[in-house]
Amino acid sequence: MLPDIAHAVRLQIIDDRTGVLTKEIAALPKHIAEIEKKLEGHQKRLDADRAAMTANQKERKRLEGDIQIQEQKIAKLRNQMMEAKTNDQYHAFQHEIEFCQKEIGRIEDRILELMGESESLEKNVKAAEAALTVEKKQVEGEKKQAQDRTAADKTEIAGLNEERAKIAAQMTPRVLAEYERIRKGRAGVAIAEAIDGRCSKCHITLRPQFLQELKMGDAIMVCESCKRMLYINAPQSFDDLVPQSVRG
Question: Which CATH number goes with the domain that contains 51?
C-alpha cells in the first residue's frame, strides 16, 4: 500500500471519529434542554397543585367565617324573638333562625367536601414534591455527565487534530489536497475500501482490469463511479498504517 494511501485511510478514521464526537457535543445541549423542559413542566404542575390547595384552604376559611356570621345572626334573632309582642313576630323570627341553621348546614356540607378534596390535594403535592426532588437530582446528574462527556470529547478531538496534523505533514501535498477536496464533496468520506470487487461506499462493481491495477498498489486510484480514493487489503491493525515517527 502506498504511504499516501495509508495516511489517507488513517485520516479518514480520524475524520470519522471527529465527526461522531462533534455531533455528540452538539446533541448534548439539546438533550439537556429537553430534560430541563420536562422538569419545568413537572414544576408547573406542582405549582398548580399547591395553588389549588391554597385556594381550598382559603375557601374553607371563608366558609368558616360565614358560619360565624350565621351563628351571630341566630343569636341576635333569638334575643329579638324573646322580645316578640305577637305570635306572628315570634314565628317570623323562628323562621329566620331555621333559615340560618339550614344555611349553616349547607356551608358545613361544603366544608366537608373541601376537606375531602384537600386530603387528595395534599397527597398529590407531597408526592409531586418528593418526585420533583428526585428528578432534580437526576437532571443535575445528567447535566454533570453531559458536561464531563463534552469535556472528554473536546479533549479527544484536540488529540485527534494533533495526530491529523502530523499525518497530513507526511503526505504529498497534492494527495492531501485531493483527499480534502473529495471529502468535502462526498459527505465527509474521501477514501473507501474495495471489498469483493466493489467500492464499499457506492457499491459499484469495479472493472477487472481496474481491480487488478488497484491490487498492485502502484498508484493512487479513484472509484470510477463515486470518485473516492480506493484501497484494498487493509492491514489487520490500522496502527500499522502510520510510521512510528508520526504516531509518537
Answer: 1.10.287.1490
